[in-house]
Amino acid sequence: MSTAQTETSVTNGIKGKTDSAEQLIAELDATNTLPLWMQMTKLNPPSPNPTCIPYVWSYDYIKPYLLRAGELISEKQAERRVLMLINPAREAPYTTDTVYAGLQLVMPNETAPAHRHVAFAMRFIIEGQGGFTAVHGRRIAMQRGDVILTPTWNYHDHGKDGSGPMIWLDGLHLPLFRHFPVHFVQHYSQARYPAEDIDTSASPVVFPWAKMQAQLDAAEGNWVSRPYKKADGRDVSLTLGGCAERLNKGTSSPSVRETASSVYHVISGRGYSEIEGKKYEWKQGDTFCIPSWHKYQHFADDSETVYLYRFDDKPMLKSLGFYRVEGEDIESLVSE
């Protein structure tokens, strides 16, 4: 046997056979491995590549369906009567790749039964009177524009006294549990967890709209943003954060491209957002989403001041070192 033939058989592993990259890749399937060089661009893209797309959910269009659900589906059947805001990309039943939003309804004299879960929740009250949520023994009255937190693993139930529906926007980090399969729910033995009425203004899980609007109106500038923070200055959770924004009539916000994905709700006013150069119109009651790394800017109509509520995944991204804003370079921190 010649030296060349010996080298070929050693290289190929099978004497006398010609090998190829295609054959190698085909045979790798049996080894439960994959060639990184064929996945390099997918795993290391040149820019963030979210699967969700920008979208506006019209409150006027969705609300009649939600009220129909209130007539047709009991609270016992539903446990939580919610219409999830599903991104049209439909890669998963969520609003963005990392954030879930849904419109929840409680009808008069109903109780959404007590349970607790791993997921943290932020709730923005859209409309109604006489609603309440009880969080781990503290019953909180719901007022339009308030943001109410449900910390992880706290028993909570929702209810409604008087006439008319109570509707709010739920915000949770449910999409994260596709990658961390640790989420679950535990139900309380009774429909309501024992609770006492508390002063809403003194609760650490309630952010009254009256106080937030006063902060926004007292600040200078055509566009103002104020975050929802704990008393010690920390974000409301490790995974979700939120803020409220004021935009004077006929003005615009700064243009931003960031790795955070966000959900906005229009508290009042009307206008539009330019997202990646496309115009998305909205008005009071509407909810819209902005995917990661999509450049956006908000514009208020000439008729009135706009107030916006936003929740996002920024705290999680900052904790993991993933948060970036276009045009801002962040130096690497290396521990020795």
TrEMBL record:
Domain Cupin type-2: residue ranges: 103-170, 246-306
This protein's record includes keyword Ribonucleoprotein: no
Keyword Nucleotide-binding: no
Any Pfam family: Cupin_2
Keywords: Dioxygenase, Oxidoreductase
Domain of life: Eukaryota
Gene3D superfamilies reported in the protein's UniProt record: Jelly Rolls
Record-given protein name: Cupin type-2 domain-containing protein
Organism: Cryomyces antarcticus
